[in-house]
Amino acid sequence: MQGLSNCKNGVKCLFSYLVFVRHPFTTEAQFVKADIKADKMATKKVTKIGVLTSGGDAPGMNAAIRAVVRTAIYHGIEVYGIVRGYNGMVEGDIFKMDSKSVANIIQRGGTILKTARSAAFFEPEGRQKAYENLKKFGINGLVIIGGDGSFKGAQKFSNEFDIPCIGIPGTIDKDIAGSDFTIGFDTAVNTAVEAIDKIRDTADAHDRLFVVEVMGRDAGYIALHSGIATGAENILIPETKTDIEELIASLTEKEKRKKLVNLVVVAEGDELGGANEIGAIMKKRLPNADIRICILGHIQRGGAPSCLDRLIASRMGFHAVECLMEGRINVMVGIVNNKVHYTPLDNAVKAKQKISQDWFKIVKILAS
Ligand code: F6P
User: Which atom of ligand 1 is nearest to 222's Cα?
Assistant: First the structure.
């Protein structure tokens, strides 16, 4: 009965309990699955799945591909790899995969299927071509591993054609609602932390102030998490307005009391700009400080996925195939409170995760 008490609304909970309980030890995930209304279920059985990675690559995408391929094969479903995201769908760059195609990839960054941000797929003609190519291969279900741009594409496609699309959140930015984690975020944050720790060593040796830029065009999670984990004095993110006067005042105060090592972590998408812009302002306003700038850039996207990223990728990939087998359409497989959670794709792209104000309080107090 644990699943019942976890449901948000009593009626749905009872419904999910009655519909999805197969035996008394039904998993927690099965309760959450009932959140999607039954009228959105597909009627045709999925027999051939296409899998693709789209948008910016993220460490752990390979682990997700592996999980999709091997789960599908286990269930007797054929799997096709689509190369370079939606571009491969438009151009018909599609190949049959087997268990061996995904051997020895769980530990590798990047994506064996390659990735792209496809302009062609955002045109109606491109989507029509993509559909015809899927039909040629007999593909009648898709798993899309990517971020919000990729899900927007999936949403458009599934509104126009009868192909159920299941999303797996794969982005280092963690800017998708409906999942506590996105594949790649944990690895990217750990890469940033390792780099910032190294910067702190040299900052300390020279009594310097460093402005470090991390990735995140629209989301500040990498900055927030890596900044807190490395004891940064200030963290600047796109979700909150950056008060430059407050920043200068806090650094001036630290300068006065001879706190000489200071780290400012800025997300590339901060409204005042990245490390170059913020650094330029600081150099003008703090003429006595010895300021250096470091942009971490794409190293955050590469490298072996962390254990967490491999685990969530495996779990999400497995459930994505189950989703298709159960007839679900157009949902994203996420993990919320350590339970598998399905969110309609349009909600996943519309809503963003909220950043709690508590974090800022923590930064202020701990970095004093
Ligand atoms: O995938 C997310 C992301 O890494 C953002 O944080 C960043 O702004 C963007 O991709 C960079 O994209 P590209 O590799 O195409 O320059």
Answer: 6
CB-ligand 1 contact for 171 (6 Å cutoff): yes
Exposure pattern of 334-363 as b/e (b: 16+ CB <10 Å)?
Answer: bbeeebbbbbbbbebbeeebeeeeebeeeb
Using the mean position of ligand 1's atoms as its centre, give its distance from the Cα of residue 236 in Å: 18
Work out which ligand 1 atom sits closest to the CA atom of 117: 15
What residue owns the CA closest to ligand 1's atom 2?
56
Nearest CA to ligand 1 atom 10: 56
Encode the chain (368 residues) as per-residue pLDDT tens digits.
Answer: 233 333 333 333 333 333 333 333 333 343 344 344 444 677 789 999 999 999 999 999 999 999 999 999 999 999 999 999 999 999 999 999 999 999 999 999 999 999 999 999 999 999 999 999 999 999 999 999 999 999 999 999 999 999 999 999 999 999 999 999 999 999 999 999 999 999 999 999 999 999 999 999 999 999 999 999 999 999 999 999 999 999 999 999 888 887 767 899 999 999 999 999 999 999 999 999 999 999 999 999 999 999 999 999 999 999 999 999 999 999 999 999 999 999 999 888 887 778 888 988 898 899 87
Q: Which atom of ligand 1 has the smallest separation from the CA of 269?
A: 8
Please tell me the pTM assigned to this model: 0.89
**5 burial class (0-12, 13-18, 19+ CB within 10 angstroms)?**
exposed
Positions annotated as catalytic residues are: 173
